[in-house]
Specification:
The chain has about 325 residues and is of the alpha/beta class. Helix content is about 25%, strand content about 35%. Strands 3, 4, 5, 6, 12, 13, 14, 15 and 16 form a nine-stranded mixed beta sheet that branches. A six-stranded mixed beta sheet has the order 7-2-1-11-18-17, covered by helices on one side. Strands 8-9-10 form a three-stranded antiparallel beta sheet, with no helix packed on it.
């Protein structure tokens, strides 16, 4: 019996399962997905999850090329597979304090104090594009369910404590199995196994803590909007009646639970900028995720012996996850 293990059950791990089923990789008789929130909660479920170019152009950088390829791949996936948990949204980008950077990125834009239902307290530069927002729990469950229709998948809610180059996996729960191949897809936890491969980007990754406020059962508009202004985000999900306000970013391998101070400043920023009555800040739930940032924000992937790896997606997990997962699956032995 040939066995494959995927360590990490976030957007990358679930995308790998979906790609294995889609690409009809039938070599592995059994596939185990290890997902556990031990040590650090999965970032996937604590993400604003927007798939949008935001003015990034191809041909200027490796990251820009990756983003455009990822968006094109994701859009084709939505068109052909009609996944659950993916919804259209208007991505509205603007700037007040960082207008020089905005003008360099966006060659064409308008100036206005209103876009559809978004009313601003002053005239601002606006760039609008079609995009998607993802409901992480719904979409990841869909990826898993679709994969299980075609391949034999076992989901283990156990934490991997030991792994070697021969594919020997030992878990916190006492399980010990040798796999024919192992794929590392656990975000910031990939650094635990950096010594098993020679990938330089993996060895130099940093953990970046991000947070935002989540308001539920909120009725604000009759459509979904993702407003990004001065690196701050105001996202309204019409279909799920959710409002997200954030986000903060700070390099750290530690969680801090007093995030409300910085998030309150961002909340006040949008309260003053937008002509709308926001829900009381006391209704907001602080969501914290740890993102894996590689040098130059460029993700990494590869295969060395029995170990494949994929990571460093940082803020582009939903934009790049499926495309990169498919590329890794196509390279499997």
């Amino acid at each position: 019996m040939t066995r494959l293990a995927i360590i990490g059950g976030g957007i990358v791990g679930k995308s790998l399962l979906f790609s294995l089923a889609k690409e009809k990789r039938q070599k592995y008789d059994s596939i185990t997905l290890y997902e556990s929130d031990a040590l650090a909660p999965a970032c996937t479920q604590r993400s604003t999850a927007i798939v949008a170019a935001r003015g990034v152009l191809p041909g200027l950088s490796t990251l820009g090329d990756n983003i455009h390829q990822g968006i094109s791949f994701f859009c084709q996936h939505v068109k052909s597979d009609s996944p659950s948990g993916v919804y259209p949204v208007k991505q509205v980008s603007s700037a007040l304090l960082k207008q020089d950077a905005f003008f360099r990125r966006y060659q064409s834009f308008t100036r206005d104090s209103q876009f559809q239902e978004l009313n601003f307290s002053q005239e601002v530069p606006l760039f609008v594009e079609d995009a998607y927002y993802v409901k992480p729990s719904e979409y990841c469950q869909w990826l898993l369910s679709e994969a299980q229709k075609k391949i034999n998948v076992k989901v283990s809610n156990d934490f991997v404590v030991s792994l070697d180059k021969e594919g020997n996996v030992r878990t916190l729960g006492g399980e010990s199995i040798q796999y024919d191949h192992v794929i590392l897809a656990c975000g910031v936890k990939n650094h635990l196994w950096a010594g098993l491969v020679d990938e330089p980007k993996l060895k130099k990754t940093k953990s970046v803590r991000g947070s935002f406020l989540l308001f539920q059962n909120i009725s604000l508009f009759h459509a979904s909007y993702s407003l990004s202004i001065d690196d701050l985000n105001f996202i309204y999900r019409y279909e799920t009646q959710e409002l997200l306000i954030g986000s903060t970013s700070q390099e750290s391998r530690l969680y801090e639970f007093d995030e409300k101070k910085d998030l309150t400043k961002i909340y006040d920023y949008f309260k003053n900028l937008l002509k709308i009555e926001l829900p009381d800040i006391s209704q907001g739930q602080v969501q914290i995720g740890m993102r894996e940032k590689a040098p130059k924000r460029e993700p990494y992937s590869g295969i060395e012996g029995r170990i494949s790896y994929l990571g460093g997606l940082y803020k582009n997990g939903f934009t790049l996850g499926l495309k990169m997962a498919t590329d890794v699956v196509r390279q499997l032995p």
